[in-house]
Structures are given as structure tokens and as C-alpha cells.
């Protein structure tokens, strides 16, 4: 697909591999462009039912600080536009409407950690290294991590990581509920693909709606969540796949889903 990443599809699961592990897959402006393009391809391809993103030995070392310096030197407007461009990668990942699983080995620093947090599920190697490094370099959280971390692990634990800039292992990240699965380093990608395959087997229209409901409900009150669920479930109950599942159950046969 490009010099920075490659996208392969097998059995309904797309694997988006970042291909600069020797440089620890820096989150550069070029990376953002290619990442958004890759997710767009996956979004439009009906053969892709779930996506795993991985950096191989290193997920991502975070923002390309050296590369960003030339934009920062142009002043506040150019800097703002650069940060907004960096954020567009997180928007694409968080807004992706198919299941997205991050398989994290090596480092996930700064924006690299934020990118992993945008996934629905994070599978981390036990010895992976996560760090909200921003405070160490005189910055503050970006790429959505100020919100994403608190959603996953609570405000106190999130502040601890942000304000100290402390590095934690994949095992500790799992204990702190920043990641969902923790496995030995040589099993990370396989474990992520197994989860993606499990999700990919489900009817896709229901999966799209379920993902949207979960995301929207996390940002609202209980009563608002009930309204969100009611609207989505009303649509699904009258679509093809849910009635087909009920008919198949009654007729004691395997359902014939059409993803609609």
C-alpha cells in the first residue's frame, strides 16, 4: 500500500501493518495521511469485516518531533493546523465503524499510545512499553489521550500517567485497565487476529450499530443511553438479520445473514 504501512486481508480480517519498525514507526504527518487512506480502503471494502493494526516489534514511538519542528517554526497558525492534522489520524481510528483491534508490541509512546487507545480492544505484549510522554517534553496530552485514557481507566489513574510521564509495561497497563488483553510478545498479533475473527463472524450491520451505541452511550447519561439503544435496536429489529436469526432459531437451522 505504501512505504509506511501495508494492508492485507484474510478470512474477513484486515491486518494493517506499520512497516518502519527500525524507526519504531513514528507518528509523522505522512504516517497520518497513509493511515487515514488505509482505513478508508478498509471502510469501503465489504470483504473487510474487522481490522487489526500492528507495528510488528514496535507499535509506534509517537509524534515525529523532529519532523514537526519545521511546522512549529512557522508560527501559531501552522502549528495549530499541524496538530489538527495529527488529530485527524485519531479521528479516523476512533470513528472507524468496523471492529478495530490494536496489537501492541514494543513501544506505544505519546500519539502512538493514543492511537492504540482509539481501538475497540487493545492486545498488548506483557513487555510492551506504554508512556504518556508529553509531560517529559514540556507538552500536554494530544491525539485524544486526555479523554481516551479517562474513559478506559478512570480519571485518577489517567492523571497519574499523564502528570508523571511514567512508562508502564503491558502487564501493568492490563492491571490498570488501559488494555483489554495481555499476552506473551510472540502471541500478540495472533491473539488480536483471533479476536477480530470472532467479531468478523457476526452480522455486520448489527456490529456497526453496536459499536456506535457503545461509543455514544459512553459519553452521555443513563437515560440518554436508553434513548440511543432504543433508536438503534428499533432499526435492527426490523432489518433482515435479526428476524432471520429468530426464524433460524425457530426452524433449528443456521441463520443466513446478509449484513443488513
From TrEMBL:
Query: What's the domain of life for this entry?
Result: Bacteria
Key words, A-Z = Lyase, Plasmid
User: InterPro entries attached here?
Assistant: ClpP/crotonase-like_dom_sf (IPR029045), Enoyl-CoA_hyd/isom_CS (IPR018376), Enoyl-CoA_hydra/iso (IPR001753), Enoyl-CoA_hydra_C (IPR014748)
Looking at the UniProt entry, the stretches that span the membrane are none
Q: Which GO terms describe its molecular function?
A: enoyl-CoA hydratase activity
EC number annotated for this UniProt entry: 4.2.1.17
Entry annotated with the keyword RNA-binding? no
GO terms in the biological process aspect are:
fatty acid beta-oxidation
The answer on whether this UniProt entry bears the keyword Cytoplasm reads: no
Tell me the enzyme class.
Answer: lyase
Task: Tell me the PANTHER family matching this sequence.
Answer: 1,2-EPOXYPHENYLACETYL-COA ISOMERASE, ENOYL-COA HYDRATASE-RELATED
- Which family, according to the similarity comment? Belongs to the enoyl-CoA hydratase/isomerase family.
Q: What is this protein called?
A: 2,3-dehydroadipyl-CoA hydratase
Amino acid at each position: 500500500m505504501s512505504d509506511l504501512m501495508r494492508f492485507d486481508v484474510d478470512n474477513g480480517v484486515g491486518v494493517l501493518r506499520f512497516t518502519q519498525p527500525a524507526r519504531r514507526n513514528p507518528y509523522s504527518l505522512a504516517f497520518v495521511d497513509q493511515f487515514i487512506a488505509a482505513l478508508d480502503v478498509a471502510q469501503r471494502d465489504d470483504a473487510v469485516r474487522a481490522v487489526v493494526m500492528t507495528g510488528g516489534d514496535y507499535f509506534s514511538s509517537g509524534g515525529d518531533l523532529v519532523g514537526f519542528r519545521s511546522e512549529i517554526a512557522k508560527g501559531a497558525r501552522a502549528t495549530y493546523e499541524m496538530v489538527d492534522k495529527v488529530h485527524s489520524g485519531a479521528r479516523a481510528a476512533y470513528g472507524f465503524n468496523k471492529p478495530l483491534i490494536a496489537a501492541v508490541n514494543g513501544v506505544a509512546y505519546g500519539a502512538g499510545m493514543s492511537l492504540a487507545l482509539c481501538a475497540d480492544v487493545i492486545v498488548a505484549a506483557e513487555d510492551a512499553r506504554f508512556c504518556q510522554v508529553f509531560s517529559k517534553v514540556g507538552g500536554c496530552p494530544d491525539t485524544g489521550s486526555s479523554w481516551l485514557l479517562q474513559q478506559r481507566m478512570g480519571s485518577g489513574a489517567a492523571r497519574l500517567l499523564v502528570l508523571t510521564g511514567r512508562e508502564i509495561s503491558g502487564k501493568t497497563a492490563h492491571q490498570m485497565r488501559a488494555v483489554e488483553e495481555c499476552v506473551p510478545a510472540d502471541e500478540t498479533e495472533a491473539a488480536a487476529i483471533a479476536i477480530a475473527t470472532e467479531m468478523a463472524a457476526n452480522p455486520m450491520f448489527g456490529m456497526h450499530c453496536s459499536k456506535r451505541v457503545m461509543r455514544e452511550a459512553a459519553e452521555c447519561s443513563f437515560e440518554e443511553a436508553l434513548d440511543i439503544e432504543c433508536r438503534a435496536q428499533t432499526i435492527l429489529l426490523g432489518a433482515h438479520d435479526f428476524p432471520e436469526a429468530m426464524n433460524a432459531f425457530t426452524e433449528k437451522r443456521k441463520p443466513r445473514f446478509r449484513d443488513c
